[in-house]
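Render this sequence as a predicted structure.
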Amino acid sequence: MADPILTRHDAGDVATLALNAPDRLNALSDAMLAALREAFAALETDGRIKAVVLKGIGKAFCAGHDLREMQAARQAPDGGAAAFADLFARCAQVMQAIPRLPQPVIAQVHGIATAAGCQLVASCDMAVAAEGTRFGVNGVNIGLFCSTPMVALSRNIPRKQAFEMLTTGEFIDAARAQALGLVNRVVPADRLEAETQALAATVAAKLGAAVRIGKRAFYDQIQMPLDQAYDHTGQVMVENMLLRDTNEGICAFLDKRKPDWA
C-alpha cells in the first residue's frame, strides 16, 4: 500500500503537514493539491490546533507544478486549455486557503522551493529555511512565465527584486530570501526541524482566540487604505478586548502571574 502523499502529525496544539512525494520533489500534482485542500479544510474547523508547520519529505521542499501531468493534458482536443485553467484555479484556491486559516502557518523549507513551490512559501504566514536552501520562480527558463507564483511573491518582497527573479529565472539563496522578506529565519540544516517547531510552539502558547482575530485582521487591513485600516483594526481591538481571556491576560500581567486561560 502506497504511503499517503500528504501526512499530518499533531503534537499537542501544533499540526505538521508533510508533502510526501520525494520522487517528484513534492511537486504540486493533482493529488497533492487535493490533499492540501482537504487538510486545510480540516484544520479550519479544528479548534485544538493553534499553529501549523508545512514541510517537505526528501531532498526538497517543493519543486512546483508537476510538469509531466501538465504535458499529458496537452493531448486533449483543446490542447489542454481547460485542464490548465482548472489546474491554476485549484492551485490558487489552495494558496488562498493558507491566509484564511485561523492558525498561523509556518513553512519549513529546505533544498529548493521553485515556481509554485516558492509560491507556497510566500503564501505561508511565516517561513524558516535551512542554510543552503534555494528559491526561484524559474518558469521563464522553460518558456512559462511564473504569473501565478508572482502574485504571492510580489506580496512578500520588493517589486524590483520580484521582477528580477521572474525575468531572469535565477535562484536566490536563503540569506538573500531572508534579507528580502521571503523567509523569517535561516538556520543550520540540522536545526531546521527543531527551530521551526520552537517557533510554532511559541505561537501556539499565545491566546488562540487573540491570534485568530489578529491573523484575520492582518490580511484584511493590508488591502485597505490607511484610514480604513485604522477604522477596521480599531473595531477588531474592541472585539479582542471584550474576550474573557483577554481580560484575564491583562489582570495576570498586572498581578505578575501567569494567566488562567480557559
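Summary. The beta strands are 6-11, 14-19, 51-56, 105-109, 112-114, 126-130, 134-136, 172-173, 185-187. The chain has eleven helices and nine strands.
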